[in-house]
Write the structure tokens for this entry.
Amino acid sequence: MRPFRIIVPASSGNVGPGFDSMGLAVNLFLELEVSESAEWEFIQPSLDLNLESYEEHFIYSIAKKIADKHQKTLPACKVVEKSAIPLARGLGSSASAILAGIEIANQACELKLSKEEKLQYGTEIEGHPDNIAPALFGGLVISTLLEDEIEHIQLQDLDFDIVVYIPDVELKTEAARAALPESYPRNLAAAASGVSNITVAALVKGDYQLAGKMMEKDLFHEPYRASLIPNYDMIRSEAKKLGAYGTIISGAGPTMMSFVPNGEGQAVALKMKDVLPDYQMKALQVDTTGLKVESL
Ligand SMILES: Nc1ncnc2c1ncn2[C@@H]1O[C@H](COP(=O)(O)OP(=O)(O)O)[C@@H](O)[C@H]1O
Ligand SMILES: N[C@@H](CCOP(=O)(O)O)C(=O)O
């Protein structure tokens, strides 16, 4: 096996009202250098996962699952991992790790998986495609899981900066999903999908004022999660004062994300630091490439 590098971007699921179906890849990356070895070994300079053995490693478990599915034996590998994606903060670390595991199996077992197969496998494992699809394809992707296939569309030519506000607390996606209703009455579902439809149409037209306004009117998940997110109302109102188009919960939270005019990300991040001194603040861009594999 030739050594290789896998690079997967972080992603932000939902983008407001696109619950479980809209997501955006951003330029924070998980990087793995993989080479054949006498035994499995994970070296992680930027993550402290505190695992007893490689078999407990999430990425290993995904790679093994995919190899088993194809009746292949996964060769032992040394994996050197660097990650700039914070865990359990709503920036899609689990989706990036799932894609990394799928890609290790793909490369090490020579499975020749298509992008569609990676999307299918990743979505089966994650349960929803909104992080897997942008982390795989890059950009802002709208996707939906049908009975036996996943439809996806990538929006082009986006023109905004992104600012993320990352608090020093974790919120597991599973816990944030438990806060949501099991079902929605018809009038609420109709209103919520109306908000979502206008958001997408406004993004396609490049009307970011309208898109941002509608992002903040989500009815599918934000109203139920707001109380789990530190400083939810304050972050929305302070970002608005600084000219943000709109501010949303990133994925299941607790990170929040603002969409701001192109070129203004750094300035907004700096000013928001005054009101959120304990937060990690980052001005980000859309990653338009998605999952990459390079030879070493
Ligand atoms: N690079 C990684 N290596 C190993 N496990 C990971 C990695 N990234 C994420 N995970 C697993 O995924 C969990 C976070 O998933 P989740 O609660 O869905 O949050 P997120 O919003 O970051 O996707 C972590 O606690 C860890 O178990
Ligand atoms: N649509 C999902 C998105 C979860 O994203 P994550 O980055 O928090 O794992 C949800 O809202 O539960």
Summary: The radius of gyration is 19 Å. The pocket of adenosine-5'-diphosphate (ligand 1) is lined by residues 30, 47, 49, 58-59, 83, 87-94, 97, 172-173, 251 (CB under 6 Å). Residues 17 and 194 are 9 Å apart (CA to CA). The chain has two domains: 4-155+287-295, 160-284.
